[in-house]
Design goal:
The chain has 677 residues and is α/β, with parallel strands linked by helices. Among the domains are: 83-250, Flavodoxin domain (Rossmann fold, 3-Layer(aba) Sandwich), CATH 3.40.50.360; 340-559 and 567-649, Aldolase class I (TIM Barrel, Alpha-Beta Barrel). The strands form 5 sheets. Strands 1, 2, 3, 4, 5 and 6 form a 6-stranded parallel β-sheet that branches. Strands 7-8-9-10-11-12 form a 6-stranded mixed β-sheet, with helices on both faces. Helix 7 packs across helix 8 and helix 16 packs across helix 18 (476-485). The model is unreliable at 54-75, 256-302, 314-330, 550-561 and 667-677 (pLDDT under 50). Its EC number is 4.1.3.44. Residues 84-242 form the Flavodoxin-like domain. Pfam families: Flavodoxin_1, Wyosine_form. Its cofactor is [4Fe-4S] cluster.
Length: 677
């Protein structure tokens, strides 16, 4: 035995702990494991308790009270339909009566129901709310004289049609909204039978809403009515609607409940509208694509359109032959820019066409400001009153075929004026008359302010930016002069392909040059210009613009594909900040968040730390008159008629470019949320 061990005292506690350390470690590990398991169990029980409480709160008190012992199931019942809104447009009261009858049937299902007169409904504010509301919207609309909607539904139908053909709304604007349509008509008027209900159905679908039950068509003509009366027609449709509503309440997505053969049924096929192109947007070119899918109801229209185009082509060939055979002493008569097919397509899109090559259309911002809301970025940046602004063009033709063109390239193109020409006096006179007639249609429309309606009848600004290339019009200078003589400011937009015309322009209030790309290759791909020397023309146009002494404006350009590719406002701000860092003489002056654009202005318009980007339009008109009286001897610059920019329009202001007088801004700001303005 080792004698050194004799000196160890094994009765010492420390020695005992050391010898038995393995068992001590094992005990500690076991204790820690128990503690971890205990914590997991406790947290799980706490989560279940919180979940129970949240589910308890989600159930109405009346429901909790009706349950035995006050206990409720932990599983929350999904709500697939929160209620039904019944909209009606009636002239004689029939649709209103049907709406009341349908509301009574819906109420029997214990669903909230509201009956709404379309005359008192503002789709611009409220329709998009139905996307997330889980309400089913039923539309009972009558077709009145000449296939038009009733007076009470006229504004709603007009708004819906324009929204469906406006690329800014897009095909997903109403995605998630369920709807059903019943039409009231008379088959004695075969060409207009239930036209309004068909259109409402189509427009809702084009905006992304989904039909929950097949459209019903009531017929006042008892002789040809399938069921003997319009009341019987409605009764059958109402039964289908209520039955479908009950299925939707249970969460069934298909009318058959998915129990039919191969999961398909006739009713489901009937209720899904096949994707089609908007004839308003694409005009006569839709049918040329053999792979496009169209609504069955539009096949007849497409075939007629094809026949019409064929006849028109034959007619044009005959005219060409006549021109070629004309004697040398006689100059060939130039053809009109607007062909019959193009006239029909543009008219459907809401254009008021003037003569053979001009047009005018009411801007959505004009409508917005008439109703007490904010204006477009031109109002924020320069003080243009949108409700007094006329959007027009003296030339529907263009020298580019831009990939982002919202006219889908249905308008004529060319590098020079080769059409019949109308006089500027006639164009301006008819443009103002047509604009005023469109303003008159807003009399009595919900929300329209009386003072702004009266002001809207007096045109103060003209935006030559509707479509096409206005500067191509040979008499553009005379047209501008006429505008200024009428005390109407001019806002001219050009695509940077006509540098000589830009250089030769007489005084214009504002001149815009669209810069859609930064390199020769990208410009060719994006704008697809017709000129072979397009890049040279582009650079010379910018040089000509610089010589005019105008303010440079940087704004985000729309995508060539879909709205999904458009950058967020924060991304535009980031880009513009980097751009301004490269041009020291410029700063960001204003922003208009709704339009997703910013104004970059030269520092000479910043006086004593304050921006002066707005325009004194009365002073401008005085200066133009002096210029004309002197025969062009006097000259003036933008600084001679500038005005101070209001605080709310400045970059970084809390209003983000929203006019505080905008009624929607006031409502949103009251709730501390202006995101939807």
């Amino acid at each position: 035995m080792d004698p050194s061990l004799d000196s160890w005292d094994f009765s010492s506690p420390l020695i005992s702990l050391w010898i038995n350390r393995f068992y001590i470690y094992l005990g500690f590990a076991f204790g820690i494991s128990l503690w971890i398991c205990f914590q997991i169990v406790i947290r799980k029980q706490l989560f279940i308790f919180k979940d129970k409480n949240s589910k308890d709160k989600s159930v109405p008190k009346a429901t909790r009270d009706s349950m035995p012992n006050g206990h409720i199931a932990l599983q929350k019942k999904d709500i697939f339909v929160s209620g039904v809104k019944i909209f009606y447009g009636s002239q004689t009261g029939t649709a209103k009566g049907f709406a009341a009858s349908l509301a009574e049937a819906v109420a029997s299902l214990d669903l909230p129901v509201a009956v709404i007169n379309l005359q008192e409904y503002d789709p611009d504010d409220h329709l998009v709310e139905e996307v997330t509301s889980k309400n089913i919207c039923a539309f009972l609309v009558a077709t009145y004289t000449d296939g038009r909607p009733t007076e009470s539904a006229e504004w709603f139908c007009k708004w819906l049609e324009e929204a469906a053909s406006d690329f800014r709304f897009g095909k997903t604007y109403l995605k998630g909204m369920g709807y059903a349509v019943f039409g009231l008509g008379n088959s004695a008027y075969a060409s207009h039978f239930n036209k309004v209900s068909k259109n409402v159905d189509k427009w809702l679908w084009m905006l992304g809403a989904h039909r929950v039950v097949a459209r019903g068509e009531g017929d006042c003509n008892v002789v040809k009515s399938k069921r003997g009366s319009i009341e019987a027609d409605f009764s059958v449709w109402k039964t289908k609607f209520i039955s479908r509503l009950q299925a939707l309440q249970k969460g069934e997505k298909k009318p058959c409940g998915g129990n039919c053969k191969e999961g398909q049924c006739e009713s489901s096929a009937e209720e899904e509208l096949v994707e089609s192109s908007s004839e308003e947007e694409s005009g006569v070119e839709d049918h040329e694509n053999p792979n496009s899918v169209v609504d069955v109801e539009d096949l007849g229209k497409i075939m007629n359109c094809a026949k019409k185009e064929k006849r028109e082509k034959e007619h044009q060939e005959e005219n060409s032959a006549l021109v070629r055979s004309t004697g040398k002493g006689e100059g060939p008569e130039r053809r009109a820019m607007i062909t019959p097919a193009l006239r029909e397509a543009l008219t459907k899109q809401g254009y008021q066409l003037i003569g053979s090559h001009s047009g005018v259309k009411l801007c959505r911002w004009t409508k917005s400001m008439l109703r007490g809301r904010g204006g477009c970025y031109k109002h924020t940046f320069y003080g243009i009153e949108s409700h007094r602004c006329m959007e027009t063009t003296p030339s529907l033709a263009c020298a580019n075929k831009c990939v982002f063109c919202w006219r889908h390239h249905t308008n004529p193109v060319g590098t020079e004026w080769r059409w019949k020409m109308d006089q500027p006096e006639m164009i301006l006179k008819e443009a103002i008359e047509n604009h005023q007639n469109m303003i008159k249609q807003f009399k009595g429309v919900p929300g329209v302010k009386e003072d702004r309606f009266e002001e809207g009848m007096m045109v103060k600004h003209c935006a030559l930016s509707l479509v096409g290339e206005p500067i191509m019009y040979p008499e553009i200078n005379r047209f501008l002069k006429l505008l200024h003589e009428c005390k109407i400011s001019s806002f001219l937009v050009t695509n940077a392909q006509f540098p000589v015309e830009i250089r030769n322009l007489k005084p214009v209030t504002q001149l815009y040059v669209s810069v859609d790309a930064s390199t020769k290759d990208s410009l060719k791909k994006i704008d697809r210009p017709l000129f072979k020397d397009f890049w040279h023309r582009f650079l010379n146009s910018l040089k000509a613009l610089a010589a005019k002494g105008v303010t440079y404006c940087g704004e985000s350009s729309a995508s060539s594909l879909t709205m999904a590719n458009v950058p967020w406002h924060e991304e535009v701000v980031h880009f513009v900040r980097e751009l301004v860092a490269l041009i020291p003489d410029y700063e960001i002056a204003c922003e208009h968040e709704h339009s997703n654009c910013l104004l970059i202005a030269h520092k000479r318009f910043k006086i004593d730390g304050e921006w002066w980007t707005w325009i004194d339009y009365n002073r401008f008109q005085e200066l133009v008159q002096e210029y004309e009286d002197s025969g062009g001897a006097t000259d003036f610059s933008a600084k001679d008629y500038m005005a101070k920019t209001p605080h709310w329009a400045l970059f970084g202001a809390s209003e983000r470019g929203f006019d505080p007088k905008d009624t929607r801004y006031q409502r949103k700001n009251k709730s501390k949320d202006i995101s939807g303005c």
